[in-house]
Amino acid sequence: MPPELTAAREVSVFGDAIAYFNEAAALLDLDPGVRLLLTKPSRQIIFSIPFQRDNGELEVYTGYRVQYNFARGPAKGGIRYHPGVTLDEVTALAFWMTWKCAVVDLPFGGGKGGVTCDPGSLSLKELERITRRYAAELVEVVGPDKDVPAPDVGTTPQIMAWFMDTYSMHVRQHTPGVVTGKPLTIGGSRGRVEATGRGVSLVALAQMAEMDINPKGARIVVQGFGNVGSIAAKMFVERGAKIVGISDVTGGYANGKGIDIAGAVAYAQEHHSLDGYRGGERVTNEALLELSCDVLIPAALEKVLTIENASRIQAKLIVEGANGPTTPEADHVFASRDIIVIPDILANAGGVTVSYFEWVQDRSGYFWKEAEVNERLAEVMHENFKRIREISTQRRVPYRTAAYMIAIDRVVQSMNARGVYA
Ligand code: NAD
After folding, report:
1. Mean pLDDT of 61-82
2. Rounded distance, CA 320 to CA 297, Å?
3. I need a labelling partner for 241 at 20 to 30 A (CA). Which of 40, 254, 298, 336 fits?
4. Percentage of residues of the chain with pLDDT beyond 70
5. If pLDDT is split at 50, 70 and 90, which confidence band does 15 have?
6. CA 137 → CA 43, 88, 276, 319, distances in Å?
7. Given pLDDT bands bounded at 50, 70 and 90, which one contains residue 12?
8. Within 10 A of 279 (CB to CB), how many other CB atoms are there?
9. What digits encode the pLDDT tens for the residues 367-398?
10. How many CB atoms lie within 10 A of CB 99?
11. Quick check: 373 and 190 in contact, CB under 8 A?
C-alpha cells in the first residue's frame, strides 16, 4: 500500500513523516520512480529477544532495526528502549535519520532500532542481557561500513559499550566504530553526550538573533528532561536565559522566575526522574507546552504538538529537540500564526554530527580535544542553518520544507551518481 494511503487510514508516525517529505518533494523536480523509492525503507528487521529476568523467569521482547537508505553511506541512527516502540515508529525515525544526515551533509544513510521494553523497570544486568542479545541478532547487518547505531530514548553510553563489546566478540575484532555514543574509555568522542542539546541551543540562538530575541532573560520551556532537554536547558542558562518550565514523563514544573537547572539535574539524577521536584509549580505535560514563553523546546517524544493544542501554544519560536514532535496539521497552524519552527532534522542534528566525528576518530585512532569537537559542531550547525534560511527565503517556504528540499536533493544526487541496481 502506498505510504500516502497508510497515512490516510491511520495517522501513523511514518505517515506524518511521509507527509512532510511529500510537501518538499512536490517542489523538486523528482523522477517519479526515485520519489517512490524514497518512500520505502531498504530493510526492516524484526526479531524476538528472549532474556532471563533476575528471578530466573524467561521473557520475550521484540527488537527492531530499520535501515532506510544507504545512498550516501552506512545507515546511521539510534536505538530506542521504550514501551511504545513499534515498527511504524522505528521506520519513521530511520526515515528522518536519512534526511537529518543529509541536511548536515554527513556521509551516512538513515537507520534506527529499538526494543519494546520499559528500561526503567529493568535492572542493569537485565538491560545488559537484552542489549547483548539485541546486538548478537544484528551482527551480520551492522558494522562501521554497514550500519552504525547510537543512543536514543532510554539507551545510554553503557548500553552502547555492551553493544560494541558483543559485536567485537562475535567478529573477533576490536570494532569501536560499530556504534557511537560510547564511553570515552572505549573510543567515545569528547562532547558527544552534550552534542544534541548543544546543537539545539546553537540553532535556537541563531534564530533568536534573527528575531531580535535577546537570550539574556529570554523565557524558555523545555519538555523532556533527558539527555537532549536537560543539556539544552543548561546551555540556555549559560547564555542568561530563564527556563520557566521543564517536564519529564512524571509531569511538568513551572516557575516564572526561572528554574534552577543545575539543581533540577542533580534532583533527576538522584531520584531517576523529576517526580517530587519542588523547584516549580506542578503542571501537566499538556499545560507545560501551553505556558507563555519565547522559545518552546519539545525534547521528549513524537506527536506532542497537534491540531488539538497548536492554537494554544504561546511560544514565538519552536525548536524541535525531539524527533517528530509536531504533526503536519499543527505545523500548518504554526505557519498561519507566524510561529517559527526549526525542524527536528536540523535542530537535533548535533548528536549525529558528533557521532560522525566519533566514527571518524575511531577509524583513525586519533582523538580530538573537546574544544575542537565543539568548534566543528558549531561550524556544521551554523553553515547548514544558513543554507536552510537561504532556501526558505528564496523559495518562500517554511524552514522545514527548505530543510527537506536540501536533504532530498543531496540524497537524490548520490542516488543518481550511483544509479539504481534494478
Ligand atoms: P532520554 O531518554 O534521555 O530523555 C527523554 C526524556 O523525555 C526523559 O526526561 C523522559 O522522562 C521524558 N519523557 C518521556 N515521555 C514523556 C512524556 N510523555 N511527556 C514528557 N516527557 C516525557 O532521551 P533523549 O536522548 O533526551 O531523547 C529525547 C528526544 O530527542 C527523542 O525524540 C530522541 O529521538 C531525540 N534525539 C535524541 C538524540 C540524542 O543524541 N540523545 C539525538 C537526536 C534526537
Report:
1. 98
2. 6
3. 336
4. 97
5. confident
6. 15, 20, 40, 36
7. confident
8. 16
9. 999 999 999 999 999 999 999 999 999 999 99
10. 29
11. yes
Nearest Cα residue to atom 40 of ligand 1? 351
d(C-alpha 349, C-alpha 141), whole Å: 24
What span, in angstroms and rounded, lies between the C-alpha atoms of 378 and 198? 9
For residue 16, the model assigns a pLDDT of: 82
Give the CA distances from residue 138 to residues 43, 49, 114, 148, 336, in Å, rounded to whole numbers and listed in that order. Answer: 12, 11, 12, 11, 45
**Based on C-alpha coordinates, what's the Rg of the chain?**
20
**Residue matched to cell numbers 548543544:** 198
State how beta strands 219-223 and 242-248 pair: parallel
pLDDT-based confidence at residue 11 (cuts at 50, 70, 90):
low
Ligand 1 centroid–CA 224 distance in Å is: 6
Task: Report the separation in Å between the CA atom of 314 and the middle of ligand 1, taken as the mean of its atom positions.
Answer: 22
Atom of ligand 1 lying closest to residue 323 CA? 32
How far is residue 180's CA from residue 192's CA, in Å, rounded to a whole number?
Answer: 9
Is 204 within 8 Å of 198 (Cβ atoms)? Answer: no
Please report the pLDDT score of residue 7 as a whole number: 37
CA of 154 to the centre of ligand 1 (A): 8
Q: Where are the alpha helices (DSSP H) in 285-398?
A: 285-289, 328-336, 344-347, 350-364, 370-395
pLDDT on residue 9: 39
Q: Which domains does the chain have, with CATH numbers?
A: 3-19+40-176 (3.40.50.10860), 195-347 (3.40.50.720)
Say how many C-beta atoms besides its own lie within 10 A of residue 278's C-beta.
Answer: 9
**Banded model confidence at residue 365, pLDDT cuts 50, 70, 90:** very high
